[in-house]
Amino acid sequence: MIQMFIESLKNLVSKPETIKYPFAPSPEPKGYRGTILYNEELCIFCDKCENICPPGAIKFEVVDIESGKKQYNYNPYLCIYCGACVDACPKAEEGCLTQAEVRTPVMGESVIKDPKLGYFINEIDNPKEVEKKWRELEIRAAKSREELAEYKKAKRAAAKAAKAKASE
Ligand code: SF4
Ligand code: SF4
């Protein structure tokens, strides 16, 4: 009886064990596979994350053809949180790609901003434009890859021709 009384007193002063869901978001459990975070400084631009991503939520765009410089773009609203990109990343252990234990907040009046989310989402202000801008980026990224491939091909051909001329 005394024990029950003590427990009741404890419960009166302790925090509730229940959560306010559905009126507040439920907290993610430990180990939850959430949003993908990127560190450009550690990236070797091998494209493995892009190639393995099932919904195509990662896209690299070549932003400078001569140097081959690429930019990482991630669409957190397309991501299915499978973690395949992190598993495929050769620099993941060093922290190049990591999976946060929290989900991406729902799209509201504004779009989430964080340098760790790559270029795409940080350049968008209107949430209604995410889908349209992503489609545009997909086309741009594919075109930039083709241009880079053509540039490299032309460079190789020029080098071969120069070599042949030198040996004449
Ligand atoms: S977690 Fe899965 S869906 Fe999300 S970016 Fe990585 S591979 Fe793509
Ligand atoms: S797999 Fe890792 S190292 Fe390779 S491009 Fe993606 S983030 Fe960069």
Automatic annotation (TrEMBL):
A GO CC term assigned to this protein in UniProt: membrane
GO molecular function: 4 iron, 4 sulfur cluster binding; metal ion binding; oxidoreductase activity, acting on NAD(P)H
EC number(s) recorded for this UniProt protein: 1.6.5.3, 1.6.99.3
InterPro entries, sorted: 4Fe4S_Fe-S-bd, 4Fe4S_Fe_S_CS, NADH_quinone_OxRdtase_chainI
Keyword set, alphabetical order: 4Fe-4S, Coiled coil, Iron, Iron-sulfur, Metal-binding, Oxidoreductase, Repeat
PROSITE patterns recorded: 4FE4S_FER_1 (PS00198), 4FE4S_FER_2 (PS51379)
Lyase keyword on record: no
Entry annotated with the keyword Nucleus: no
Class in the EC hierarchy, top level: oxidoreductase
4Fe-4S ferredoxin-type domain location: 34-63, 70-102
Superkingdom assignment: Bacteria
A Pfam family: Fer4_7
Name assigned to this protein: NADH-ubiquinone oxidoreductase 23 kDa subunit
Source taxonomy: Bacteria, Pseudomonadati, Campylobacterota, Epsilonproteobacteria, Nautiliales
